[in-house]
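User: I'm new to structure prediction. If I give you an amino acid sequence, what do you actually give back? Let's try with this one:
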Amino acid sequence: MTLLSGKRRVLAAAVCALAVAPSLAACGGGGGGSDSKTLTYWSMWTKGEPQAKVLAKTAAAFEKSTGVHVDIKWVGRNVLTNVSANLNGGTLPDLVDQDAGELKATFAAADAATGLKDVCDAQIIGEKTKVCSVLPTSVMARYKTADGQPMMIPYELISSALWYNANQVKDVAANPPATWPDFIGVLDKEKSSGRAPLALDGDTGQYTSYWWTYAGVRHAGVGALRDAVADKSGKSWDNPDLLAAAQDIETLVKGHYFTPNYTGTKWPAQQSAWADGDSKSDFLLMGSWAPSETAPFAAKNPTKFAYRSLTYPNVPGGKGNDAVEESLIGFAIPRKADNPQNAEKFIRFFLNKKYLSGISTTALNLTPRQDIAVPPQLADLKKQVAKAGTNTFLSDDGVTAEFPQFGSEYDYPLVQKFLDGRLDAQGFIAAMKKATVEYWKNQG
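Assistant: Good question. You get back a string of structure tokens that encode the predicted 3D arrangement of the chain. For your 444 residues, that looks like this:
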């Protein structure tokens, strides 16, 4: 699973708001009300994806149990583009899912999502447990309606880490580098043996941004990147910690630690080559879906690939040391949905351990329930998230969720230029400062 196209969706929402798929415009309910036996669900997944298989199986069980037919449209990552276009008039689904940050970016400004406090306080269907008693409410608190209710109910937890093959770098598996100097030492050792230790597809704004986000958080602290963009004067970019973060990334670029020609490859070329061993690279900084997405290629690796991961290394004196990315994927109900009761009932049904476990066993991803077993490939990552506790940050440190236009027009393009080597550390910080001032000036 990649969330890449989903990120592009929310970043381009302002431009694409009128691009409504005709097939979706006619698929909503018709004022079915509380007695309706239909539920219209627009999903971020495409038919055949592991998560789609889990949801489809659950929908069939839900219909058998309740008599409510779930009309699922497997829209894909741009699902919220269609929702955005219809918020002020037009047909909306009863239920939609996506990354929590993207749901917030779509619904928050117009307060267009149904508050889900009643769902949160209700029992999971088939269990004696209340919905939010098994969910990470501290993370959910970031996504609220105007009256303070939960805006979304999660069914998948996503994070990111430095992935590696334990059978390829056995020393790392035995003694993972915890600090930046130690990490550079490992990279130097791999370089000396003829390897290019870091895999990266340079054409993807989200994936290149992982490096900048982690460096920025480590040095300047959680929320520092978001706060820098929020400062209309641009002066927050003068923070020396942000320059130090940029200098770390400059070290990687100028030190040729990334795989050769990474700036000219198309995703997923490098991550696939990392998995099957063709790239001679050791580490992939990627989301928690990396094992699931690269599994077909890892099966070809002659070393018998063993997925392990480590957290991005701490830096000396870092204000955001040990922080881990933690985001959620889940459900939201548009305020103007025709059948919100059925949508709420489906959420309570899917959160049952029997059905939600499929996200772990079939989709090989993390769930927000602590009592569901973790896929072995994600065991390290789960421990990292647990250890971090509340010391977590949003994807892109919250920049793209709160300022989607800045992300699409400035942040991702500038990060790509930086990772490509077209900007040095000081030039990158100066460009981000200028971009912030320009962005706010254009906001009027």
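You can read the tokens as a compact description of the fold. Here is one thing that stands out. The domain at 4-158+326-371 is CATH 3.40.190.10 (D-Maltodextrin-Binding Protein; domain 2).
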